[in-house]
Every structure is written in C-alpha cells, then in structure tokens.
Write a sequence for this structure.
C-alpha cells in the first residue's frame, strides 16, 4: 500500500516539475534574456534543496517502477513484492547517499 | 514393581481463574431513519483473551444495546458474512481474537468501505455480487462427459487453481482496494479471483469469454498492485497473484 501511495505522490510531483520544466525551456524561443532571468532564479540554495527532493522523487519512482514491472511480468514477482520494496528503499538510500553530499557541496559553494 | 501414586503432598488443584479484561469498542453507528451522518459510539465490554470481536459485538447487542446491527451467520469464518473494518483493517469479526489486538487502546469497528452503508455495520452487497455474477462464475463445458462418467482432472490440473477456490465472498478484499473506493465500476479483486478459479480449470471451456469480460477498462487493468486485497483476505488467498495471472492470460490470449 505505501509503495503505491509514494509512487502516486512522486508521480504527480514529477508531472508538475515536467510541466514547469517544459514551460521554462520553451521560454528560450520567446527570448534568451527571459530564459536566462528565469534560470538564474533557480541558482539559489532553496532551489538546490528542491532539487534534492526532485531527484529523490525521481529515483524512488524509477526503482519502484521497475519493481511494478517485475510484479506484472515476472511469474514470482507477487511473491517477492515485499522484499523487492525493501530493495527499492535500499537502492534509493544508496543513490541518495551518493548524490546528496556532492550536490549540496556544489549548491552551497557558489 | 512400582506404580505411580499421587503425591499426597501435592496441593489439590484449584480451579484456575481465567483473566478477563475490560475492552473498549468504538463502533461506527448509523441509523438511516434518525442519523444524517454516521457517528462513533463507545461500549465497554468484559472479554476474555480468547474471545473474538464477534463475541464483543454479541455482548453489546445482547446486554447493552439491542439496536446494534451486523451480519453474521456461521460465526466460524466460512460464510463470509461478518467482514468489517477493525482498527482500520478489513477482517472477519469471527476470526479476530481479542488477544491479537492492542486492548490498552480502544478497538475501532466500522463497516467495510466502498459499498453503500445501510445501517451500522451492514453495507449493500448488491454491487459486489453484481460484479461476481458478471464474470460467469460457473462451469461452462463444451462437451458432455461419457454416460455415467465424471469429468476427469489430474491432481496437477486441480492444483493450478486451488488457491482461488478458497474464496468465501466476504468482500474484505474488494472493499480494501483503493481503486474500488474511488471507482465503484471496477470489478474488484473478489470477482477476478472467482473468474481465475474457472479460467484455469481444465474442465472449463469458456476461459476466452471470461478473459474478454475482464479485458475491459474496468477489468483487471484497473489493478495497481497495492496488495491491500492480499493482506485483507481472511482465507490467505494470494489475490494479487491471481489478478497478475489473469493479466498474463489476457496478454497470451489463453489461460
């Protein structure tokens, strides 16, 4: 149940990010100055923390998506769904441990 | 030769006093003739650790408030009448022992969700049985067995669908499914389990028909593998596994 709830929440969050992302990227067609101004506002520590949340959501959604594919297509998938959920959590922690310190050093050293 | 003699020093066995507890039950009551909204009402009952929630409900009904309304028939986990939401989880009241719950806190009892509430712990089961009927849960053979003969089935063929024969249609799975809560059109796990029972039966010849029925917008593809149904099933049926097998059978085009 909780894997599904998290999958929904991260899915909707990623959708809204992509919506904004397409809009701000499309701005370059309007005027490069406007694009630079908008992208410039992203270079703040608050946005840097937001990026940690974004990457966290995407990493969970990606790993759990693979788990759901295995549940649907691997004949033993439903039997090992709980174990696979713990693997997803473990992979998420490992990925975030690798990403977060490196990213935050970049964000706060500017 | 020595014979076993009762040791005279041993004290006479005193009748053991079985410890009982005061348990608080908070029941979600609803009387459609009086109440506009369901309300939570609490009752204190004296229970033994080996009593069941159904016994507590009986005690309330018989000793405190005769208007408490709930379904139960066999009271032994076979008829599937008394599925209800106990402490937020769908269970059979007749299979939930007091000792398995944390009685230092009140026990919340309410009707199963997703089906129209009629009174207290009773819901309208018609939409549930409607889905069940739609999957044609009966044997549809294309040939007759020889005169005076039975339909022969190997042990392995029988084992193929053994798990899904255990269903008692209590609706604990269907009413624990978040998809069913928001989309009452979805067939629900119980209907799919009962379709599975015939789709994978070697004596049945209408698997295609049932797979067609379930290959619908409101059919098996609504399942989001939340595993709530598997956790809720009081018979331990691997419900999500059965749904996944039906999904794969639809993709293959045959069981």
């Amino acid at each position: 149940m909780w894997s599904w709830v998290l999958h929904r929440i991260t899915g909707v969050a990623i959708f809204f990010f992509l919506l904004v992302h397409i809009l701000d990227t499309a701005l370059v067609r309007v005027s490069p100055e406007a694009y630079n101004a908008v992208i410039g506002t992203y270079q703040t520590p608050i946005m840097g923390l937001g990026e940690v949340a974004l990457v966290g959501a995407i990493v969970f959604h990606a790993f759990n998506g693979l788990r759901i594919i295995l549940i649907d297509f691997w004949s033993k998938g439903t039997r090992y769904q709980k174990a696979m959920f713990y693997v997803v959590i473990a992979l998420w922690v490992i990925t975030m441990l690798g990403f977060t310190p490196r990213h935050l050093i970049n964000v706060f050293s500017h | 030769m020595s014979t076993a003699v009762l040791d005279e020093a041993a004290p006479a066995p005193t009748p053991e006093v079985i410890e009982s507890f005061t348990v608080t039950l908070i029941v979600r009551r609803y009387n459609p003739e009086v109440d506009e909204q369901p309300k939570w009402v609490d009752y204190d009952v004296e229970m033994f650790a080996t009593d069941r929630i159904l016994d507590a409900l009986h005690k309330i009904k018989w000793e405190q408030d005769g208007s408490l309304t709930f379904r139960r028939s066999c009271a032994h986990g076979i008829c599937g009448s008394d599925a209800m939401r106990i402490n937020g989880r769908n269970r059979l009241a007749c299979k939930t022992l007091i000792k398995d719950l944390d009685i230092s806190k009140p026990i919340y009892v309410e009707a199963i969700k997703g089906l129209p509430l009629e009174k207290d712990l009773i819901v309208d089961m018609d939409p549930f049985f409607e889905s069940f009927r739609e999957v044609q849960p009966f044997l549809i053979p294309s040939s007759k067995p020889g005169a005076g003969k039975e339909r022969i089935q190997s042990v392995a063929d029988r084992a193929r669908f053994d798990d899904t024969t255990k269903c008692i249609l209590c609706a604990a799975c269907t009413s624990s499914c978040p998809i069913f809560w928001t989309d009452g059109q979805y067939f629900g796990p119980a209907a799919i389990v009962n379709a599975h029972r015939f789709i994978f039966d070697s004596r049945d010849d209408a698997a295609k028909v049932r797979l067609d029925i379930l290959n619908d917008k409101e059919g098996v593809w609504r399942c989001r593998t939340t595993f709530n149904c598997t956790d809720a099933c009081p018979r331990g049926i691997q419900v999500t596994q059965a749904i996944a097998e039906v999904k794969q059978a639809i993709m293959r085009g045959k069981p």
Observations:
- The interface with chain A takes residues 178, 224-228, 230-231, 238, 240-241, 244, 247-248 of chain B (CB under 8 Å).
- Chain B has a mean pLDDT of 90.
- Residues 20-123 of chain B form a domain with the Ubiquitin-like (UB roll) fold (CATH 3.10.20.30).
- The radius of gyration of chain B is 23 Å.
